[in-house]
Amino acid sequence: MPSELAQSAFVLGGFLYAVTTMEVFASALDADGRPTNWTSLGQRPGFGGSTSVAVHSADGRSGFLYLTGGGATMTGNPGTCWVAKLPGDGTMTAFQETSSLDPGPKYHSSAASSGHLYVAGGSWWSGGSFTGMGSDLPFVSVADIRADGTLTPWRRTAMLPRASSSWRIAALGGRLYALGPVGKGIEVLVADLLEDGSVAGWRRASAQLDQPSSRFGLASESGRLYVVGGTDFAQDTNAVAVGRIGPDGDVTGWDLSTADRFSGARSDAAVAGGNGHLYLIGGNGFFAHPPSGSFTDTQWATIDPATGHLAPPGEARMPRAPGPPLRVRAVAADGGAVVRWDPPADDGGARILTYAIAASRGDVRVEVGRDATSARIGGLENGLAYTFEVTTRNAAGEGRGSGQSEIVTPWASATWRPATLMVTQLFARKPFIVGDELFARNYTRYLAAPFGADGLPWGQIGPGWEGGDSSATFPHFEAAAARPTGEATTCVYYVGGFDWTKTVGTTHVDCVQADGFRGKWPDGPKISATLAPTRQDGAAIVVEPFLYMLGGTHRDQGMATDLADVSFARIGGGGSLGPWSAGAALPEPVATPAVVAHGGSLYLVAPPGSPSAILRAAVRPDGSLGGWRPSGAPLPVAVAGARAGVLGDFLYVVSARSPAVLIGRFDSSGGVASWESDTDGSFGDPVLDVVTAPGRLYVRSASGLQMAHVDPGTGRLLRWR
Q1: Secondary structure E strands in 334-409
Q2: What pTM did the predictor assign?
């Protein structure tokens, strides 16, 4: 190659193409598939290697070259996409812009299949050195390819199971394969593609790959996958792994042969398959021994159609070490995990003697007997992420590893799981959920935490990204109440607060639309209603069409007074508020009352003076309240510092000072008919909020955010599987 830093390569017709960080090159292939002289086809747009490259061809001779996303480190990711036509004669037309991606990724991967273009994973950066925010991405987006090569608008499809900028995807046989570093190896996923281009859902392949875990090349050819080179950030490799594909698209095994190795261990090589050959261009040898810098060579090999290898493997002695165990999987437990596997397809010609299971951290290793297909791994630290690898031993020795299991996080509870990626924000107002996203405002900035398929946040955007700030003049420690105002928008009313000298009685609103990432922020109504007496904290809640404010603390000239008053205001057209009116006061002053709404009534849960009481006040048509009276069965135990939430016909009460989650069932009259206790929880002190979503219960405390799944019929918490 006449240039370093080859980023991507592909074969189209009789030509091998290479895209570097600056140019596009082509080389005619001779009758044996050997590349000849390289010719520059011109400069490329996009910011170097942060842009992903894909090619689409309907006839195998001509097609379209796509560059997607990318962006300079400190200027943000614009998500721009370009397309150039490849006529099939080794030339290329000029690039033109086509539909852009949002959020704009960089260091992502792309592939084309059956008239659709896919982009997966990557990272996002808002721009700026101190004010910007960034995140790895789990998104998979698809666009249809028009006849002229331009793209329809992008749409999202089934997400990858974790956010990463190291996923690599390949299209083969109407399926997508995604490979990404995990633990000490490479995770292998497969997904069927539907006719409309959607990804049907990702599943782990039966055979995972025990290889250096990053910066490898990926290609598909002759019905197989090829993983070429790579590094574990201590040692580059020159290995080539051949992935066998079963009739259902599953990866059934990985073959490694010393005869397949290429010359010069390296990572980041551009790899391509085509016409029964495999090609390798350039790469980096920074982790080779000795380090060799950047490569510019081109290597090629012919694929044996019967075996998929590049050269005949040497004769294996008998017996030999066994093959890797298959379908390794793990389930978290308290201080450990349960790991399961299937025996290897190849026992090496001798009976298996033992299996060994190794954790990805902590030097934890367990051996079990030949008939075992599972093992309990102890001695792990709760809250840390682990993967596990299983190896098999026979009389000839220990075979290759199974590759890593999925990531699991040991935890003390069988029903609760921590949101390990979400920052604990002790000063944030109560989080609210819009669609599949959780939002919380901390002072004047928002945290957006999009949910994965399991209901836990996969990452966090903010605070600090442009567009999510409220005015810097807003106070702090307000009470917050979320109110859906349509199918896509929720507006949050913030009442009162503290400006560091005294409490205030102002009310303001922010509206948000979920987009599965950072949210969109339409203009909200202008709020002018002022509450007296002024206060911080307290509880705000909406019972249509009224906004209620209960309790709180009034501060002035260094004096603090807790309040018992209840005020309400009618919500008018456009979300505006009428004047505040007085409602039935709380039985006693409470700084942070636990108040929920159900069936047209407000419920006060475990006030300090009656820590086992549930008090109810009915909402009248004019917004005024009936008096606070006991409602149904009291709590089975006294609860201090309670937080509460309602989901369907069930009331959930949580306290940091008890491991129990108290579950009350509302009867048809609105009273609490009965209580159950789930003692599997454990929450930090203080418990700040309980937030509900269909089928899910979230608790935010000093130790972070935890989530449990809920049975909608019984209200009980479900065990994680």
Answers
A1: 336-342, 354-359, 365-369, 374-377, 388-394, 397-398
A2: 0.93
